[in-house]
Amino acid sequence: MTHTAPLRVVVWATGTLGRHAIAGIDAHPALELVGVWVSDPAKDGRDAGDLAGLGRDLGVLASTDRDAVLATEPDCVVHCAMTDDRVLEAIDDLIGFLEAGVDVVSSGPVVLLHPGPALPEVFWQRIEDAGRRGGASLHINGIDPGWANDVLPLQLTSLSRRIDQVRVMEIADYATYDQAVAMGDLFGFGRPVDAGALLWQPGVLSMAWGPVVRQIAAGLDLVLDEPLQEVVDRRPAPEAVTTVCTEIAEGTMGAVRFEVIGSVDGVPRVVVEHVTRTHPDQVPEWPRPAEGEGCYRIEITGEPVMTLELSHHGEHGDHNVSGMIITAQRLVNAVPAVVAAEPGLVTALDLPLVTGRGLVPPSVSQEIPEN
């Protein structure tokens, strides 16, 4: 058997997502954590194992010094920084990594998931040029937008004889989603129902989830009508709700349902839908998970008609905890494939099958206790 050296990996930011990426890299036999970048001076010099809550040191100290972290000569950056509220700055960061010759897997900005008109052509060309100069590739993914929205439904379409519509849904209770910026500034939970939160500005949903619609369409050889359609239904909380990061008063926004629709000749063919509550009793007529507090549901109409529901929960936590784990792990497990890919932007359609290779622990013999 041929043994190769582990790929050297840096984690960029250690918030809600990054801490799980550190744990994932530590558990992956083909990866070695060599550096951690943090924005918070209070985290500077702390051990990565401490930041990830592993209960043990990993011997890798976090640093606020960008150049020092890149001086560790990583093969890949697992970029976990919040990008939703700093899209252009994040793109500059990612391009800088490519120019430095470092491959990147990142959870955002999600507008880079698949090329489309949400960004001017100059941005896409900058990424391709930087990748070519540095000989490095960039892959944006996660779980949503990402794998559950595009890779999984496209795999399911391989069972189809005729496809009339592909609908992918996230149905979730966000009460334990510990991300104040997303809950407040992006969704507007706890604010007046008609408040102008970022997601509800015209075109923003198409920028965020439109790349998923376009990636599914590309996988099915569809040419979509332009622009994509956006449908939003915001509802007030019937009673006060306390979430882990946001207080939602009675009458303020407590739930939302939205769709991003890709049509062909006026017929909806690819639809991404979100049903988001902050309490399980809200808007009972909206779709609910078959089990648990959250799921991804794929509905394909045609021949045959198929429905697939993916539910998840953490070993020691709820579905929002496991949501962060599966987002981080899709990035971590994709590192070898992205490092091996051609320079430039790499979409999910460009990658081979990514699996949890090497993650099954060795068997441990257990003695049967005596009665």
UniProtKB/TrEMBL annotation:
<protein>
    <submittedName>
        <fullName>Dihydrodipicolinate reductase domain protein</fullName>
    </submittedName>
</protein>
<dbReference type="InterPro" id="IPR045760">
    <property type="entry name" value="DAP_DH_C"/>
</dbReference>
<dbReference type="InterPro" id="IPR036291">
    <property type="entry name" value="NAD(P)-bd_dom_sf"/>
</dbReference>
<feature type="domain" description="2,4-diaminopentanoate dehydrogenase C-terminal">
    <location>
        <begin position="150"/>
        <end position="354"/>
    </location>
</feature>
<dbReference type="Pfam" id="PF19328">
    <property type="entry name" value="DAP_DH_C"/>
</dbReference>
